[in-house]
Amino acid sequence: MTNLLIVDDEKEIGHFLSHLFTAKGYNVKVVNSGKEFFSINLSLQKFHAAMIDLKLPDTDGLTLLQQIKKKQPRCKTIIMTGYSTIKTAVEAIKFGACDYIEKPFDDIDLLEKQIDDLLEDKDTNADEHIKHLANEVGLITGKNETMGKLLHTAYKVAQKNITVLIEGETGTGKEVLSRFIHHASPRSHESFIGVNCGAISEPLLESELFGHERGAFTGATQQRKGLFEIASKGTLFLDEIGEASRSIQVKLLRVLEAREFMPVGSEKILRTNTRLIAATNKHLFEAVQKKKFREDLYYRLNVVHLKVPPLRERKEDIPLLIDHILHRFPGIDISFSEDALRAILSYNWPGNVRELSNFITSIVALSDPTQNVITADDLMFSNLTSVPTPVKPQPHTITANGEHHLEHYLQNWTNHILSVFNGKEEIHLEKLLEEIKQLESKVGKAFIMKTLKEAGGNRNEAARRLKITIRKLRYLLNEKR
Ligand SMILES: Nc1ncnc2c1ncn2[C@@H]1O[C@H](COP(=O)(O)OP(=O)(O)OP(=O)(O)O)[C@@H](O)[C@H]1O
Ligand SMILES: [Mg+2]
């Protein structure tokens, strides 16, 4: 027999739930206060599941949740909450509640399903499901406990249409996390649209978000739909929300409060059902304290707060992430020696997963194709910039060994450049062009070495065949990298 505990001070709710679940064959116990709850001997009476109201006259649901989790860790708990306390309900999930449901219950079937799923242990399989969904959006779930809990919470809140604020340093994976939330949500078949609030000017951002009427401003030759309309059934990802101007902040507040907005130059009021996920790599609350960000908007956005830990606090995930990154290069068989891995693990990765990804990509692009194992000597972490670069000179890479290596080298280069070009990572063009200069010099050298070989080592002859001066030949051969 399944034992279900219901804690709610509203007697009618207790009766209703008791009726509903007794009819399903459960053994239901209802209590109406904290006092009654504490009179139960939890060591003797075991519950398979508990539904706990968050607001009780003499205590709060979170205290009861912790108590029951302590005494009966296997008991599945669900928090019941009114809309105004959703934030606390999300906290409850962080404390180990399996889920929360909103009162009043307007979908009884859903309510029954939630309890049935819980009791059928579907929740225990959640980890596998989370991993699977995360993989589908390219998010690697490592071994780190904080990350694990974060994904669990993200997965839970994904099911409901509530606003999420993701904070985390640059490159920690805020965008992939928001894609995961969308993918795990009932909206996954609708569109996921991202917009970077820091990357475009205010008027442009306004028209991007809310749309505009024809003739609303110079250049507005046609009417245009805004993202709040386009993504009305889907998810809108507002990246770098901290960069949104005051006037955009006011408009966002209105959308969040009333779910409505007006396109630029229009008097029409449009409604939207977009699910909003905002991200920032700043401490948004500090911006609130400095009066740079509206406090009311902050609280509206911050219904669910997810903080992605920096990579240096989850280094145990680095080997898995490296594997994942290497998988992007089919046919490349590279591994890291123990000392190389140690060096990688001792580095602090201020640019987080993105930096790691760029780093591995450049190793792949620049490594000697005959060398399958990268050693610590092959790595050099620059302490001047935050971007570590593999810089071990490999003079023999293409020079002595002929076309085969040149071909491989150029292929690696093409892959590297194309992956930067097509990737979503920040591009350091200066750095890329600098690397291309090295490529130029390597290719030049490869031609000279080949011709020198064919000319029996005669420099004058090689220069003649290559139509360059002997000075240029010497220059190219001796050029420092
Ligand atoms: N857990 C992860 N598994 C696999 N790849 C990841 C993970 N986290 C981040 N990445 C990769 O790292 C790069 C940066 O991630 P993302 O763009 O989501 O970071 P971000 O936090 O949004 O950065 P920024 O603040 O600079 O916008 C991407 O290429 C992403 O695919
Ligand atoms: Mg981002």
TrEMBL record:
<protein>
    <submittedName>
        <fullName>Transcriptional regulator</fullName>
    </submittedName>
</protein>
<dbReference type="InterPro" id="IPR025662">
    <property type="entry name" value="Sigma_54_int_dom_ATP-bd_1"/>
</dbReference>
<dbReference type="GO" id="GO:0000160">
    <property type="term" value="P:phosphorelay signal transduction system"/>
</dbReference>
<dbReference type="InterPro" id="IPR027417">
    <property type="entry name" value="P-loop_NTPase"/>
</dbReference>
<dbReference type="Pfam" id="PF00072">
    <property type="entry name" value="Response_reg"/>
</dbReference>
<dbReference type="GO" id="GO:0043565">
    <property type="term" value="F:sequence-specific DNA binding"/>
</dbReference>
<dbReference type="Pfam" id="PF25601">
    <property type="entry name" value="AAA_lid_14"/>
</dbReference>
<keyword id="KW-0597">Phosphoprotein</keyword>
<dbReference type="Pfam" id="PF02954">
    <property type="entry name" value="HTH_8"/>
</dbReference>
<keyword id="KW-0238">DNA-binding</keyword>
<keyword id="KW-0067">ATP-binding</keyword>
<feature type="coiled-coil region">
    <location>
        <begin position="422"/>
        <end position="449"/>
    </location>
</feature>
<dbReference type="GO" id="GO:0006355">
    <property type="term" value="P:regulation of DNA-templated transcription"/>
</dbReference>
<dbReference type="InterPro" id="IPR025943">
    <property type="entry name" value="Sigma_54_int_dom_ATP-bd_2"/>
</dbReference>
<dbReference type="InterPro" id="IPR003593">
    <property type="entry name" value="AAA+_ATPase"/>
</dbReference>
<keyword id="KW-0805">Transcription regulation</keyword>
<dbReference type="GO" id="GO:0005524">
    <property type="term" value="F:ATP binding"/>
</dbReference>
<keyword id="KW-0547">Nucleotide-binding</keyword>
<dbReference type="InterPro" id="IPR011006">
    <property type="entry name" value="CheY-like_superfamily"/>
</dbReference>
<dbReference type="InterPro" id="IPR025944">
    <property type="entry name" value="Sigma_54_int_dom_CS"/>
</dbReference>
<dbReference type="InterPro" id="IPR058031">
    <property type="entry name" value="AAA_lid_NorR"/>
</dbReference>
<keyword id="KW-0175">Coiled coil</keyword>
<dbReference type="InterPro" id="IPR002197">
    <property type="entry name" value="HTH_Fis"/>
</dbReference>
<feature type="modified residue" description="4-aspartylphosphate">
    <location>
        <position position="53"/>
    </location>
</feature>
<feature type="domain" description="Sigma-54 factor interaction">
    <location>
        <begin position="140"/>
        <end position="365"/>
    </location>
</feature>
<dbReference type="Pfam" id="PF00158">
    <property type="entry name" value="Sigma54_activat"/>
</dbReference>
<dbReference type="InterPro" id="IPR002078">
    <property type="entry name" value="Sigma_54_int"/>
</dbReference>
<keyword id="KW-0804">Transcription</keyword>
<dbReference type="InterPro" id="IPR001789">
    <property type="entry name" value="Sig_transdc_resp-reg_receiver"/>
</dbReference>
<feature type="domain" description="Response regulatory">
    <location>
        <begin position="3"/>
        <end position="118"/>
    </location>
</feature>
